[in-house]
Amino acid sequence: MTLSHTMRAVEISEPGGPEVLKPATHPVPVPGHGQIVIRVAYAGVNRPDALQRAGLYAPPASASPLPGLEASGTVVELGPNVTRWSIGDKVCALLPGGGYAEYVTTHEEHALPVPDGMGVKEAACLPETCFTVWSNVVMRGGLRGGERFLVHGGASGIGTTAIQIARSLGARVFTTAGTDDKARACEALGAERAFNYKTEDWAAEVKAIGGADLILDMVGGAYLPRNIRTLADDGRLVQIAFLQGAKVELNFAELMMRRLTLTGSTLRPQSDAAKARIARQVETHVWPMIAAGHFTPVMDSEFPLDQAAQAHARMESSGHTGKIVLKVGG
Ligand SMILES: NC(=O)c1ccc[n+]([C@@H]2O[C@H](COP(=O)([O-])OP(=O)(O)OC[C@H]3O[C@@H](n4cnc5c(N)ncnc54)[C@H](OP(=O)(O)O)[C@@H]3O)[C@@H](O)[C@H]2O)c1
C-alpha cells in the first residue's frame, strides 16, 4: 500500500493551556525495526497528554513530539522483522507518543488485537489505562482476591479501569471521587464504597474496616501521610502521579513498624521490552475479562481530532467520568 507523505495531526505549538493544541500537517512516520504503522481511527486522551502540553512531561528522546499515548486503527505498513501483524489487522496500541495524528508508529509488541465484539472507539481507550493499572496494581502492587483495595480518582480513566479489574480479581474495592454523582457511578462499576473526598473522611472509613491492603494513588501531596495511615499492616502504596505535589514531610517509622511498602512507576519511559512484558500480561489476563463482560471502558465523550483543545479543556474541568476520545479516521 502506498501511503501519502503527509498527514493531519495536532501539535503542541508551545507549552501552555489547551489552546496551544493546534491542527498541523506532519510527515507520515516511517516504521523502524519491529515497528508497525497504524492508520488511526480513534486516539485516547489521557491526563499525561495535558502534562506534556503544559511542558511538565517531556516525551522520551526517541518518541514523536506529538501528543497521544494510545490509539486504535488498522495496520497499514510493517517495518523490518515484524512477525505478529499483517496489513489490514485491527489493533489498539500503546504509543510512545504521536497518537493525535492520522498515522502513528509503535513497536509491534505494544499492539493488541481489538477485542472481539468491541468497536475501535472503545478499543482506543484500553491500552494506556490497562497497561498502567495492570502493571501497578497487579505486577507491582500484587493485588490478590479478597484484599481491600483503595483507588483514588475513581471516576478517572485510570480509576474506572482499576475498579473493574480489581473487582474481577475478587478484591474488595473502595474509591474516592469529587462529587456524589461520580461516587455513585463508581459504585455502579463495582466499588463497595465510593467516598466523596470533599464531604467524607475516606481515611477514617477505610481504617475502620481494617485498612487498605493496597492503595493506588495519583493525588500525592497531603494524601501521602493519609494513605500511609490508611494502609493495613503489611500494606502497599503504589504512586502513579502527584496531582497535589511530590514533596511532603513523612514519618518513615510507620513503614518500619507496620511493614509497609511504598512504590510507584510511570509507564512511558520504560523500555520496549518492559512494555512488551506488560502487553503480554494484559492480553493474557485483561482481554479475557473483557470477553467475559467483567470489564468495559467507561466512555465519557468524543471530539474530532481538530478539537483536541476542547477535549483537554473537558478533561481539566474534571466534569468527565471515564474516557475521552478523539475521532481521527473513524
Ligand atoms: N504512572 C503512569 O504510568 C500513569 C499513566 C497514566 C496516567 N497516570 C496518572 O493517573 C492519573 C489519572 O489519569 P487519567 O488519564 O485517568 O486522568 P483523568 O481522567 O483526568 O483523572 C484525574 C483524576 O484525578 C482526580 N483527582 C484530582 N484531585 C483529587 C483528589 N484530591 N482526590 C481524589 N481524586 C482527585 C479527579 O477526580 P475528581 O474529578 O473526582 O476530583 C480525576 O478523576 C493522572 O494523574 C495521570 O497523570 C499515570
From TrEMBL:
> What is the protein's given name?
NAD(P)H-quinone oxidoreductase
Is the keyword NADP assigned to this protein? yes
Domain Enoyl reductase (ER): from-to ranges: 16-326
One annotated GO molecular function is:
oxidoreductase activity, acting on NAD(P)H
Supply the InterPro entries for this chain.
ADH-like_C (IPR013149), ADH-like_N (IPR013154), ER (IPR020843), GroES-like_sf (IPR011032), NAD(P)-bd_dom_sf (IPR036291), Quinone_OxRdtase_PIG3 (IPR014189)
Superkingdom of the source species: Bacteria
Write the record's keywords in alphabetical order, separated by commas: NADP, Oxidoreductase
